[in-house]
């Protein structure tokens, strides 16, 4: 990219209300979304200060796309990816530019359409089993239930049942600890991150235990060359034909990084998207009714499967609109690998750029009535590539985007086919900003459809817990994410 500009980063305006030493760290920690939206008046770029350093937030969709499409210059980096690398190493979603092309080639076969169909079948069945476990009048801890669903389905598609039930539960709890700590660690200065607090020790234990679990599975799979029709089998057997000799494969450490990448990505982001979609459907019953009618027509009594996807247009639009309003990756960062120009401004090597799908997705000039849930805004065609970026764009776009969309569409259809969802209480529910836009603490009430399964007789009671402790299969046990109606 030729640098012909005359302006420097110092000419980019600084966001207001920066404090000495701290910069904008306090508003970012206190209410990150409000702070991000306060910058919507800047149409191109604005500088944000974090302690003694600063980053340039890109507010323009065309400039954002330019950054995404030039990953050779604008590489993945910055505080978000530094913290994520602590857990998943140099997996496909976090590795630097020099490693990315090779890893993408080796991972791509795992997401071939022939594989995706099998993964979708697993997910549809898991969603049906989860829906069958609920009862009329239950109050769901929605995020916990969706985390359980996506964890089980992701484990099955990745490892085809290699984990024992107790290990599965422990991995779910460990993952929740890791994910909940990401954002605070991202915003905490390096010196304080090393302080051995109880929270840090808990985080370290969870991270090490999850990594050990994945490493054990890889060791067992290396010893068994059978194709288990799962994602790990494809990764183990993948060969980079463009490497020297054309036979290079992923090492054990690379396999562990990729397995952790796809596990955390496939589980957490899909669970959050599903939770927000269910929340939006519960607060928009007319859309929920239409979606239920679509599901009944598409299935016509048959078991839900990926074969039904072409007939699930409204479900697809609901997921698309959910990702617009609540993109799991609400903020992304990039680091310049060399001096470059962006929007007529010279930026130096090592500079950090901040990109926010949440900000772009709620711009009124791009989306009329941007805060309104309206799946039918997508009837006229596909989302605009420049302004709709829930999965990123360019060579670093999420490799599993189609897998994630398939999962969400099938799960929503399975759930709405069985249950009517309604809010608990009248207070609006706000995201809890972590690395993702968390729906932690969201509850919804279930009402069984008249044509559904008959309700069990007799009273039941349980305590709903929002904490991601090990879920129990017994109603009323601690950690049970469902509160049964008496």
TrEMBL record:
Similarity comment text for this entry: Belongs to the cytochrome P450 family.
InterPro entries per the UniProt record, alphabetical: Cyt_P450, Cyt_P450_CS, Cyt_P450_E_grp-I, Cyt_P450_sf, Cytochrome_P450_Monoox
SUPFAM superfamilies cross-referenced by the UniProt entry: Cytochrome P450
Keywords recorded for this protein, A-Z: Heme, Iron, Metal-binding, Monooxygenase, Oxidoreductase
Annotated spans, Disordered: 440-486
Cofactor(s) essential for the protein: heme
Source species: Streptomyces tsukubensis
A Pfam family per the record: p450
PANTHER family: BIFUNCTIONAL ALBAFLAVENONE MONOOXYGENASE_TERPENE SYNTHASE, CYTOCHROME P450 FAMILY 4
GO molecular function, one term: oxidoreductase activity, acting on paired donors, with incorporation or reduction of molecular oxygen
Protein name: Cytochrome P450
Binding positions for heme per the UniProt entry: 398
């Amino acid at each position: 990219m030729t640098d012909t500009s005359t302006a420097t980063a110092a000419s980019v305006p600084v966001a207001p209300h920066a404090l000495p030493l701290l910069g904008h760290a306090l508003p970012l920690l206190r209410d990150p979304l409000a702070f991000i939206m306060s910058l919507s008046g800047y149409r191109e770029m604005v500088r944000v200060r974090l302690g003694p350093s600063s980053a340039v937030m890109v507010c323009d969709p065309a400039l954002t796309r330019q950054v995404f499409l030039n990953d050779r210059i604008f590489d993945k980096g910055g505080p978000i990816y530094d913290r994520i690398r602590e857990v998943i190493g140099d997996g496909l979603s976090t590795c630097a530019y020099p490693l990315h092309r090779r890893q993408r080639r080796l991972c791509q076969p795992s997401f071939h359409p022939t594989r995706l169909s099998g993964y979708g079948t697993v997910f549809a069945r898991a969603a049906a089993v989860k829906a069958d476990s609920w009862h009329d009048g239950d109050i769901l801890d929605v995020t916990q239930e969706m985390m359980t669903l996506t964890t089980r389905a992701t484990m099955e598609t990745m490892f085809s049942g290699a984990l024992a039930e107790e290990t599965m539960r422990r991995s779910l709890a460990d993952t929740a600890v890791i994910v909940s700590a990401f954002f605070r660690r991202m915003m905490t200065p390096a010196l304080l991150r090393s302080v051995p607090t109880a929270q840090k020790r808990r985080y370290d234990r969870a991270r090490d235990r999850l990594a050990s679990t994945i490493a054990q599975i890889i060791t067992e799979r290396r010893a068994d060359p059978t194709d288990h029709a799962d994602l790990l089998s494809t990764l183990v057997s993948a060969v980079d034909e463009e490497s020297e000799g054309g036979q290079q494969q992923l090492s054990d450490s690379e396999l562990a990084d990729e397995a952790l990448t796809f596990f955390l990505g496939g589980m957490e982001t899909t669970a959050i998207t599903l939770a927000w979609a269910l929340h939006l459907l519960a607060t928009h019953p007319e859309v929920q009714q239409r979606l239920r009618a679509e599901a009944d027509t598409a299935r016509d009594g048959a078991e839900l499967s990926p074969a039904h996807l072409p007939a699930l247009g409204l479900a697809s639009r609901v997921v698309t609109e959910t990702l617009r309003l609540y993109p799991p990756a609400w903020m992304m960062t990039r680091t310049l690998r060399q001096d470059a120009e962006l929007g007529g401004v010279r930026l130096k090597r090592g500079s950090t750029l901040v990109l926010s799908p949440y900000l772009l997705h709620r711009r009124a000039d791009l989306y009329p009535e941007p805060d309104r849930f309206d799946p039918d805004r997508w009837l006229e065609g596909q989302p605009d590539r420049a302004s709709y970026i829930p999965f990123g764009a360019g060579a670093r776009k999420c490799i599993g985007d189609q897998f994630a969309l398939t999962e969400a569409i099938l799960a929503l259809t399975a759930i709405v086919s069985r249950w009517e969802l309604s809010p608990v209480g009248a207070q609006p529910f706000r995201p809890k900003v972590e690395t993702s836009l968390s729906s932690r603490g969201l509850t919804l009430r279930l009402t069984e459809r008249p044509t559904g399964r008959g309700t069990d007789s007799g009273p039941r009671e349980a305590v709903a817990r929002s904490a991601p402790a090990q879920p129990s299969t017994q109603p009323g046990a601690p950690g049970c994410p469902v509160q049964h109606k008496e």
